[in-house]
Amino acid sequence: MKVTLERADLLKSLTHVHRVVERRSTIPILSNVLMRAEGGEMRLKATDLDLEVSETVAAMIEQPGATTIPAHMLYDIVRKLPDGAETVLETAGDDSLMTLSSGRSNFSLQMLPETDFPDLTAGTFSHSFEIDARELKRLVDRTQFAISTEETRYYLNGIYFHTTELNGETVLRAVATDGHRLAQADTKAPEGAAGMPGIIVPRKTVGEIQKLVEDPEATVQVELSDAKIRFTIGSVVLTSKLIDGTFPDYARVIPQNNDKELIVDRDPFKEAVDRVSTISSERGRAVKLQLAEGRLVLTVNNPDSGSATEELAVDYQAEDLEIGFNSRYLLDITAQLSSDTIVFLLADPGSPTLIRDKGDKGTLYVLMPMRV
């Protein structure tokens, strides 16, 4: 194999694919990136057996071929080459080393045979549709923070995507919860999405989608089955296994009759929560909200370091109420909101609170209270 590529093109593709590779893999071939050169282009592919990312890059091919070399090492080398450089990759038929040369720099890298590289893309997909990159990114961004990190409840370690009927219209819905908070985002279901199975996309795949959707004006091709999902974003193809589990009936925890409405400006509220929680301990992140007509007092008490209070003017006309929340969870939710106004719908100190974004009717958040 002998291939010449622009350093910038190679680096861009390696940036996309090398992130999938675990730095400490017990299976040597999984530390490598597959490079296959044919027909005027080079395809790079990396996998961890659950997730696979591949991308095609233009190349001048003198001799076609395929091999695998260490992904992170190759990325680091190309990243450190000067801008505008040309990179030549060459292998000899009977050698176990690939030569990478660029200007006066020369590297020899250990190879493993491409026949050992696993293929994740086998199988057929039952549903296929296209979605605007902007909408896909919105669904993911608005919900990913609520994904559980508790491995024993593995079915919560991702975002649940499914279609449902809402006000006579079919919507594509993303839901994530860790048992303490829940995030839900809707968008109009793309053509072809109706009837798709409910699927749980793993946390790592969600993170890659966020990084790969670079152009919000692009269109993303989505193909899925009960076990796998594939996203085609420009020249990048991401294939992932899905979480094999049943997502809980999340609708049961979304309150329907919370009648106490609190309307507050997002930024002053966020900054006040952040300030008073400075003295909270790592273990006890509770902040108490004391509500009275037109007034909100935020209080944090820490037996080891003291207390803090801050008062805000708010729109609240219901009866007085005291309720506690995890301050970090409040800050996570306020960070997702697109408008300057937050609407809290409360019931009592022991019941879930519904939080809405006044500027985005397609999202809602549920937060469980804490005892304070």
Structure overview:
Belongs to the beta sliding clamp family. Pfam families: DNA_pol3_beta (PF00712), DNA_pol3_beta_2 (PF02767), DNA_pol3_beta_3 (PF02768). This is Beta sliding clamp. One of its GO terms (molecular function) is 3'-5' exonuclease activity. It is found in: Cytoplasm. The chain is α+β, with helices and mostly antiparallel strands. It has three domains: 2-116, Roll (DNA Polymerase III, Chain A, domain 2); 127-252, DNA Polymerase III, Chain A, domain 2 (Roll), CATH 3.10.150.10; 254-367, Roll (DNA Polymerase III, Chain A, domain 2), CATH 3.10.150.10. Helix content is 17%, strand content 44%. The strands form four sheets. It has a nine-stranded antiparallel beta sheet. An eight-stranded antiparallel beta sheet has the order 6-2-3-4-17-16-15-10. It has a five-stranded antiparallel beta sheet with strand order 5-1-7-8-9. Helix 1 (7-18) packs antiparallel against helix 2. The longest helix has 12 residues, at 7-18. The N and C termini lie far apart (67 Å).
* Distance linking N and C termini: 67 Å
Q: Which regions have little confidence, pLDDT < 50, spanning 5+ residues?
A: none
Q: What top-tier CATH class of the largest domain fits best?
A: Alpha Beta
Anisotropy-based shape = elongated
CATH topology description of the largest domain: DNA Polymerase III, Chain A, domain 2
Protein name: Beta sliding clamp
Keywords: Cytoplasm, DNA replication, DNA-binding, DNA-directed DNA polymerase, Nucleotidyltransferase, Transferase
Pfam family, one: DNA_pol3_beta_2
Subunit structure: Forms a ring-shaped head-to-tail homodimer around DNA.
